[in-house]
Amino acid sequence: MNVIVIPARISEPLQEVHLDTKNLDAYENLVDGMIEAIDLYHPEASFYINEEGKLRRMPFNERATALWWAHNSAARDQDWIVGPAVLHGPVGQDGESTSVPEELAALLLHTRTFRIETATAPDGPFDPQAGRYDDWFIAYLHGLRLSDPLSPHQRFRVLPAQ
Fold first, then answer.
1. Which of 82, 86, 68 is nearest to 27 (CA)?
2. Domain layout of the chain by residue ranges
3. Strands across the sheet containing 35-40
4. What is the pLDDT along the chain (162 residues), one digit of tens a residue?
5. CB 45, CB 89: distance < 8 Å
6. Distance between CA atoms of 140 and 115, rounded to whole angstroms?
7. Which of 7, 48, 64, 103 has the smallest CB count inside 10 Å?
8. What's the 3-state SS for the chain?
9. What is the pLDDT of residue 50?
10. Which phi and psi angles does 3 have, rounded to 5°?
11. pTM for this entry
């Protein structure tokens, strides 16, 4: 199974890692402790984070938090991620983790230029926004600002620029 490790330090690059789904120790080593799962949507995915990260005063993980808030609006401005985060796919029917969705892996690891689209209604169409970004994290931060509760934009997505 392929996962993406997002270190808390922005200066450290993302890492694509292949893990055995049955090896709990491998997950715990990546997050430096016991794991806790949190969900993302559109596309469906999950993070494993350190269950005691806040108690241990691990550093704030801005990149993982931005992804979580973008892909799970219920978490936005309610909670945050600390320490390293392991991004993987949704939990399968057998209860085991799956690989990170290909579209998300390609966006985070292989895309060089990004764009944002926003929607003003929960089920409405997406409209392109002006601007191109050289960093996925900056694109996500801008999308989060555009979809602020005081903004007419209710949803956003980050896509490869064409």
1. 86
2. 2-101, 111-160
3. 15-18, 2-6, 85-88, 45-50, 35-40
4. 999 999 999 999 999 999 987 888 999 999 999 999 999 998 999 999 999 999 999 999 999 999 999 999 889 889 999 999 999 999 878 878 899 999 999 999 999 999 999 998 888 899 999 999 999 999 999 999 988 776 767 889 999 997
5. yes
6. 9
7. 103
8. CEEEEECCCCCCCCEEEECCCCCHHHHHHHHCCCEEEEEECCCCEEEEEECCCCCCCCCECHHHHHHHHHHCHHHCCCCCCECCEEEECCCCCCCCCCCCCHHHHHHHHHCCCEEEEEECCCCCCCEECCCCECCHHHHHHHHHHHCCCCCCCCEEEEEECC
9. 97
10. -130, 165
11. 0.93
For residue 128, is the peptide bond before it cis, meaning its omega torsion is within 30 degrees of 0?
A: no
- The pLDDT assigned to 120 comes to 87
Which phi and psi angles does 89 have, rounded to 5°? Answer: -80, -175
Question: What's the one-letter identity of residue 10?
Answer: I
Predicted pLDDT at 162: 78
d(CA 17, CA 14): 10
